[in-house]
Specification:
136 residues; mainly alpha
Length: 136
């Protein structure tokens, strides 16, 4: 398989997994909606490489994180606002996780959907950067 296709599929899987941890992600088609969000994420990361080279930005991890997060936020925001029957974001919280021996309470409640989209884009980009650093 081509290396670019494998990287694309890895990014789709990253966003698919990240969105499973967001209770504020409303997906009417469940797995298909997660897959669509993953495709948007992978397309935005592919586009971010072009943006970095067009504007002459260095390919450093913090710059990749900023550009990737901004483009991912834009793509998810467009689908959230203009096509809510694919997927949407609502109020979310950090914490509220039950482990075997202890549980974490809900620590922070995020009431703005735009901040939830930004947080999802940020976490997915961090995971992508870490995985591809480990891959090389």
């Amino acid at each position: 398989m081509n290396k670019k296709i494998v990287n694309f599929l890895i990014n789709v899987a990253i966003m698919y997994i990240v969105l499973d941890f967001f209770p504020g992600f409303k997906a009417p088609y469940q797995a298909v909606s997660n897959f669509y969000a993953g495709i948007i994420f992978a397309l935005m990361l592919t586009l971010s490489k072009s943006v970095l080279s067009i504007f002459g930005f260095p390919k450093l991890s913090p710059i990749k994180l900023i550009v990737g997060t901004a483009l991912t936020f834009a793509g998810l925001w467009l689908v959230h606002n203009f096509s809510s029957n694919v997927f949407s974001f609502t109020e979310n919280y950090l914490g509220g996780i039950n482990f075997i021996f202890f549980s974490l309470p809900k620590m922070v409640i995020i009431k703005d959907a735009n901040l939830v989209i930004l947080l999802a884009a940020f976490i997915a980009n961090i995971c992508s950067i870490i995985i591809f650093k480990l891959k090389h």
